[in-house]
Design brief:
The complex is a heterodimer. By secondary structure, chain A is mainly α. Chain A has a single domain (2-126), classed as Helix Hairpins. Chain A contains 4 helices and no strands. In chain A, 26% of the residues are buried. Chain B is mostly helical. Helix content of chain B is 64%, strand content 0%. The chains are: A mainly alpha, B mainly alpha. Chains A and B meet through helix 2, helix 3 and helix 4 of A and helix 1, helix 2, helix 3, helix 4 and helix 8 of B.
């Protein structure tokens, strides 16, 4: 009963759900790219990179979703539920990607701190030694 | 002018992204039948995890067992990031004297609250990485939770210092045990990170063979590394 109801709702609002998942992730990627290209402040550029990261992770997990699927964890008494689970591979890849994203962000921020101490500014157009 | 160019560029990228992504139907079953003789990668993982790894959480089995070497590289990246930050923000000993983490002392409310919350947060983090093979979560998530507890202490207590010797030892032992477990798998099972899944039954704490041990090591390593990064970043001397 629950499953049928869910399927009905899913088919009825399929367009909106697709837009919600794919559209949001693409919008996040574009917002992050805009920040990276447009902003002068280095911290804002790093924030933009993190937003791109979030969009890509959402897209990955969204692609791995299967209608009516549960989390790929076996509960006691449901050891044969493997055919009703969502795709576990994108989730494992996103787990890796989040950690790498954290490492990249932290190294970038520490480099920004170093630059700020040297030039007394975090704006890329005011750091003159970058031009040659 | 620049803005117009960027918006045109973004519109182009957005158009092609939408064009590509919308060709993938949302929510469709792409795994295929998991009982077939030639299953997809996801189908293989879903149908074989219970018998071959004895782990309830399929994602843990993928991260630690099927793609264990990848996780070892991931842990190495995190270690390199910590080392990189420490060397980028290196200070000489005599500069260390006038380092003040906080400009203002935090209020008594925050200090008392932090002292009450810190053990609970640490306990939750340890729970999450010990039960990584049974429930959602695992070494990376649990380690991050423990590090948030340390962050709470670092920002609310002026004199709270992390012991770098103990942290370096924990990190070394955790990383070394991951590699030693891998080498042991190489000796006993002829594959790096080979598992012994016969121990314990599914959905009990003692199941999955070596997977929980590896995830506990990863949890300790991540907790210590993130605490180290936060400690370094919070100790930066303000410009005078």
């Amino acid at each position: 009963m629950m499953q049928e109801e869910f399927n009905e709702i899913f088919v009825k609002y399929h367009e909106i759900i697709t837009l919600g998942v794919y559209g949001t992730s693409i919008a996040l990627m574009l917002i992050g790219l805009y920040a990276v290209l447009m902003k002068k402040n280095l911290v804002k550029i790093v924030i933009g990179l993190s937003i791109i990261d979030a969009g890509i992770h959402l897209l990955f997990v969204g692609i791995g979703y299967i209608r009516g699927g549960t989390a790929p964890i076996f509960s006691p008494g449901y050891e044969n539920a493997a055919n009703r689970m969502v795709d576990p591979v994108p989730q494992a890849l996103v787990l890796t990607a989040i950690v790498i994203g954290f490492a990249v962000t932290s190294v970038a921020l520490s480099l920004i701190i170093r630059l700020y101490k040297h030039h007394n500014t975090a704006k890329i157009d005011q750091i003159k030694s970058l031009k040659w | 002018m620049k803005k117009v160019f960027i918006i045109i560029l973004l519109a182009l990228i957005g158009y092609f992204l939408v064009d590509t992504v919308y060709n993938i139907p949302f929510g469709e079953n792409r795994i295929g039948s998991i009982e077939s003789d030639h299953p997809t990668v996801a189908g293989y993982y879903l149908s074989n995890t219970v018998e071959k790894s004895r782990v309830a959480n399929v994602i843990t089995a993928i991260v630690v067992n099927y793609r264990g070497l990848d996780t070892l590289g991931e842990v190495t990246v995190l270690f390199l990031a910590t080392t990189g930050i420490a060397s980028i923000l290196y200070r000489r000993k005599e500069e260390e004297e006038d380092v003040e983490r906080l400009n203002l002392p935090s209020s008594m409310l925050i200090r008392t609250g932090a002292r009450v919350l810190f053990p609970i947060i640490a306990l939750l983090g340890i729970y999450v990485f010990i039960h990584g093979h049974l429930t959602p979560g695992g070494g990376f998530q649990g380690g991050t939770i423990v590090a948030t507890g340390f962050l709470l202490m670092l920002i609310s207590y002026k004199g709270f210092n992390t012991n770098h010797n103990i942290m370096a030892w924990i990190e070394s032992i955790a990383g070394l045990s991951f590699i030693l477990i891998g080498v042991w798998g190489l000796i006993s099972d002829n594959t790096f990170l080979g598992n012994i899944p016969e121990v314990g039954k599914l959905n009990s704490l003692l199941s999955g063979g070596l997977i929980p041990i590896i995830y506990i090591a990863v949890g300790f390593k991540v907790a210590v590394e993130l605490t180290g990064i936060l400690d370094i970043l919070l100790k930066i001397k303000p410009n005078k």
